[in-house]
Design goal:
This protein is of the alpha/beta class. The strands form 2 sheets. Strands 2, 3, 4, 7, 8, 9, 10, 11 and 12 form a 9-stranded mixed β-sheet that branches. A 3-stranded mixed β-sheet has the order 1-5-6, with helices on one face. Helix 1 packs across helix 2, helix 5 runs parallel beside helix 8 and helix 6 packs antiparallel against helix 7. It is globular, with a radius of gyration of 17 Å. The two termini are 34 Å apart.
């Protein structure tokens, strides 16, 4: 049985069990949802930066799901930072290892997805990708015994097709399945080679209140095609395909709108936690459907 080992433990989140659990508790404490939640949650969008910067927003989504229901399997649509295939790539067998132990892949669900020809089985595509990995310890801690189905999701129309198919499969399942799309938002500043409004405080404000907001608004309105188009034109999401897939699932399962729980960026977090700022910022949002 193949086991995917962690690649960013010790960088994006703690590499040992006890500190990992401690930081999860801290993220949950910081990320308590302030909004009234839907009666049911079928999908969510979470960021995937280091937990210091975006862990509280990821925890916010998982905590909201925990309040609404128990979950048997999480389908995690990941951003495809280094995977350049045109089809979504499924990690179809085995398990994932984190500092909290192993979590099993839902192989039965993987088979159902692969039979639809909307994705391919490719565990090697996941080897160097962090966008799914940083979510898994939250699932292990909050949803004991839950399985996962990791799928890297390129930013193209196939992500929307995949989401629709996964939503249809979920309708036919007796077990509770929730889908997560993993994306960060605008990567702004000289470091990222993206400065359409120049540099400085006003430019970073634009990245958050205009550029991020356009993508968030399309997500909340459940408009996956517009999400992909906006990300391609405005560079406001690195995991647009993953987020669009989650939105497509939500639409298939009858949702008509999403709920934005929180929106921030790395520069704001640095100011709040470290009392310093920089010329760059990456946006983060927590959304449930």
């Amino acid at each position: 049985m193949q086991t995917r080992k962690p690649i960013v433990a010790g960088q994006f989140y703690p590499a040992r069990q006890s500190p990992c659990i401690t930081e999860i508790y801290e993220c949950i404490r910081e990320g308590k949802p302030a909004e009234s939640l839907p009666e049911t949650i079928v999908a969510g969008i979470v960021p995937h930066a280091g937990w210091t910067f975006s862990g509280s927003l990821a925890a916010m989504v998982f905590s909201a799901i925990k309040q609404c229901c128990s979950v048997d399997t999480f389908v995690i649509f990941g951003a495809a930072h280094g995977y350049h295939g045109s089809s979504p790539a499924v990690y179809a067998q085995g398990s994932w290892l984190t500092p909290l132990g192993e979590v099993a892949v839902d192989e039965e669900l993987a088979d159902s997805v692969l039979k639809t020809d909307t994705a391919v089985a490719d565990s090697s595509a996941h080897q160097d990708e962090h966008s799914i990995e940083v979510q898994v310890p939250f699932i292990q801690h909050l949803f004991t015994g839950a399985k996962i189905l990791p799928i890297l999701t390129p930013p193209n129309e196939r992500s929307i097709s995949l989401g629709g198919v996964v939503g249809e499969i979920i309708k036919q399942q007796k077990k509770k399945i929730v889908c997560i799309g993993s994306t960060d938002l605008t990567h702004y500043g000289p470091r990222y080679g993206f400065t359409p409004k120049g540099t400085g405080a006003n430019a970073l404000q634009w990245a958050s209140t205009v550029n991020d907001k356009e993508f968030i608004d399309f997500a909340v309105k459940l408009q996956p095609q517009e999400m992909l188009a906006s990300a391609a034109e405005n560079l406001n999401a690195c995991g647009a395909g993953a987020a669009a897939a989650a939105v497509a699932v939500a639409r298939k399962l009858g949702k008509t709108k999403g709920l934005l729980l929180a929106h921030t960026n790395s520069n704001k977090v640095m100011l709040e936690k470290m009392g310093t700022s920089c010329a760059e910022a990456v946006g983060y949002a927590a959304i449930v459907f």
